Write a sequence for this structure.
């Protein structure tokens, strides 16, 4: 069967529709039904520790649903639980329905081993088993609360032996994350975190698990190349290609020819392409629309790099820069900081892409920033003087 032909513009609308941007935001209170529908579409929420604005996993929800109660989202994640935490893209909250398709990764990780774990087992025989026993007796528990957490060996990832042991046990599925408090992980035994009916499901073999995860990725992407699909759950390209072929054979995926891409692509056979995409959204650096920088550049002509780890004098746009999605295009970016002490949302810089109508964009962006400030419990928005959109944004506010 010949591939379906599609333009890049149609692929963009397909992606945004699949990601939930084709629907208007809820007119009333955002509740569990909205969270559930959104997560079914995007398949995961990436987690990141940077908190200069708010934790990154809160931002894709705001982008799609508007202001909501972050505590309610926390309860949705942990109290259902409708989601579980694992290395699905990077660290991510993942729908509980994908648990049986993820457990093969846990088993495979146990077979590979970590250098730091080998060192702990050599220098502290029995320590890993002792940590697991302590989780069973005292969980949920954080690494800080272990009887013998060990000393940090340095900043960033210089974890003590307790944290390393718990991360290893988490990666191989011997413990699960029960909750987070101030972003600190609390670990417990899987049977006290994951619903029993989920644990009772048969663990899928790797080939079946690949098909399940690839199918979820194709639905979330709208349209994607093999590499696009592989990146969504950090899969290998070869195993992704095999899974895609199998899904095409069973009619669960369709081959697509996007004229401007010059490479094969795939879509869900039930894909609906919106006629238009309207409205504005501020995208986290870890939003599925932009986390694959090469895909974002190919589809939107938008070059984006996060500059958190770039020395300040070398930054082009700023420390925590959110792309601006407006009427179906990436039209600019804004460098944001929540100054909680002053009660201010600081837009330290605001930039429009070449050719964008800045006079049309500025008032819409101003309204969205005011909405975000209210959602974050901040009293006002203040704009710095960095960027070609800054002056117009000030006037709009």
């Amino acid at each position: 069967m010949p591939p379906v032909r599609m333009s890049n513009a149609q692929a963009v609308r397909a992606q945004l529709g699949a990601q939930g941007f084709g629907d208007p935001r809820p007119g009333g209170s955002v509740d569990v039904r909205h969270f559930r529908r959104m997560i079914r579409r995007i398949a995961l929420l990436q987690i990141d520790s940077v908190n200069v604005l708010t934790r990154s996993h809160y931002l894709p929800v705001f982008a799609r649903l508007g202001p909501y109660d972050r505590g309610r989202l926390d309860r949705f994640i942990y109290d259902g639980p409708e989601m579980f935490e694992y290395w699905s893209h990077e660290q991510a909250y993942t729908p509980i329905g994908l648990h049986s398709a993820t457990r093969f990764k846990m088993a495979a990780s146990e077979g590979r081993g970590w250098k730091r774990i080998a060192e702990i087992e050599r220098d502290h025989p029995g320590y890993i088993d002792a940590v697991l026993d302590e989780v069973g007796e005292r969980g949920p528990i954080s690494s800080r609360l272990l009887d013998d957490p060990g000393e940090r060996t340095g900043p960033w990832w210089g974890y003590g032996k307790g944290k390393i042991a718990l991360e290893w046990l988490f990666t191989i599925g011997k413990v699960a994350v029960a909750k987070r408090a101030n972003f600190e992980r609390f670990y417990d035994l899987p049977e006290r975190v994951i619903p029993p009916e989920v644990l009772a499901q048969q663990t899928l073999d790797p080939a079946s698990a690949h098909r399940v995860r690839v199918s979820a990725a194709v639905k979330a992407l709208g349209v994607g190349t093999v590499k696009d699909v592989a990146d969504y759950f950090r899969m290998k390209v070869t195993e992704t290609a095999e899974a895609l072929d199998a899904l095409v054979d069973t009619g669960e995926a369709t081959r697509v020819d996007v004229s401007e891409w010059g490479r094969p692509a795939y879509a869900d056979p039930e894909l609906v392409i919106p006629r238009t995409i309207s409205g504005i959204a501020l995208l986290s650096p870890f939003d599925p629309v932009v986390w694959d920088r090469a895909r974002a550049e190919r589809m939107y002509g938008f070059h984006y790099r996060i500059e958190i780890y770039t020395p300040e004098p070398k930054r082009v746009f700023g420390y925590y820069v959110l792309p601006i999605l407006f009427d179906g295009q990436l039209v600019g970016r804004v460098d944001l900081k929540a100054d909680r002490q002053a009660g201010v949302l600081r837009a330290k810089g605001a930039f429009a892409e070449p050719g964008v109508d800045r006079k049309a964009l500025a008032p819409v962006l101003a309204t969205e920033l005011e909405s975000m400030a209210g959602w974050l419990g901040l009293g006002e928005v203040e704009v710095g003087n960095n960027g070609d959109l800054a002056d117009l944004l000030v006037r709009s506010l």
